Amino acid sequence: MDPLSEMLALLGTQSSVFAGLKAGGPWALDFPPPEGIKFNAVVHGTCELSVDGEQQPIPLKAGDCFLLSRQRAFSLGSDLALPAVNCETVYRHAVNGIAHCGNAGEFFLIGGRFAFGEEAALLFDALPAVAVIKHGSEQASVLRWALERLAHELTQPSPGSSLMVQHFGHIMLVQVLRIYLAQEASGPPSWLLALSDPRLGSVLQAIHAAPARRWTVEDLAQVAGVSRSTLALKFKQKAGASPLEYVLRWRMQLATRALRNSQVTISSIAQKLGYDSDSAFSNAFKRIMNCSPREYRKRQNAASM
C-alpha cells in the first residue's frame, strides 16, 4: 500500500456527511466552522467563497473544488455583500440531502465532511486553511468524473446510493490531495510535502513497507539513491524531521492504532514494531505520546464508553 493510502487507512473515518445546495437569484449563506475536513465542489453556476482569516473572497465556477482543512467559518453566495442567512435555516429543510435557497435552479454545489481522529494532524496540518482546485487542470479530470457521479447519486437516489455517495466522496478527497501533491513544490516542512518529492516518497514507501526494520540513514539513502548527508538535509527540509525520527513517529502511529482498535498485548505490539523489549517500546512511546502505552490504551477505552 502506498504511503498516502496507508495514512488515510490508518486515520480511519470516524464519520462522514455528504450534502448538496441548490440556489439562485441573490443569495448568501454563512456556515459554522466544520468539524473535520470539508470539501465542496461546484456542479454548475458560480459563487463567491469567503473563509475566516483569508483576505480576499475566492470566485468559484462549475468544476471548481475547495477543501477546508481548518475549523474556520466560511460564507458562500452569489454576492457576499448581501446579508447572509445562517445555513441551518435552509439545510433543515433539505430533501435527500439537498438544500434549496432562493431560485434553486442557477447554482448547484455538493460537498462532504470527514471527521478523523487526533492523528489526522500528521496529514492535514500540511495543507493550507483553504485549498482551491480549479476545473481547468488535467489532473482534475478524475475529480470532475467523481463529482458528476456523486451529484447523480444525491439528486437521483436509488438502492445502494448511500454507499455509492460514501465511495465517490472518498475518491474526491483522495484526488484533491493528489492534485495538491502535484502542484505544491514548496511550503512549510510536512509529511505531505516530503511525499511530493519522488526520492523522499520512495523513502517513505520503504519505511511504511517495513516499519519494524532496523533502519539506518545509510539504508534509507540507498533507497533514495543519494548520499547520507543529502538525504538527511533534504528530509529535514521537506518533512521537518530526520529520517530516523520519522521512522519512530510512524511506528508510534501504528502503535496507537493497535492500542485503540485491538486487545493485542503491548508485548506483541512492541515485537511487531521491531522492539526487543517492552521497556524500549514504552520509552519510545512516551517520547512521542507523553504517556505509556498502557496509559494510552486506558484513556482510549474510557473515552469510548
UniProtKB/TrEMBL annotation:
The keyword Lyase does not apply. Residues 201-299 form the HTH araC/xylS-type domain. It is found in: Cytoplasm. It comes from the Bacteria. InterPro entries: AraC_lig (IPR032783), AraC_XylS_family_regulators (IPR050204), Homeodomain-like_sf (IPR009057), HTH_AraC (IPR018060), HTH_AraC-typ_CS (IPR018062), Tscrpt_reg_AraC-type_HTH (IPR020449). Keywords: DNA-binding, Transcription, Transcription regulation. Pfam families: Cupin_6, HTH_18. Regulatory protein of the TOL plasmid xyl operons. XylS activates the xylXYZLTEGFJQKIH operon required for the degradation of toluene, m-xylene and p-xylene. PANTHER family: ARAC FAMILY TRANSCRIPTIONAL REGULATOR, HTH-TYPE TRANSCRIPTIONAL ACTIVATOR RHAS-RELATED. This is AraC family transcriptional regulator. It comes from Pseudomonas typographi.
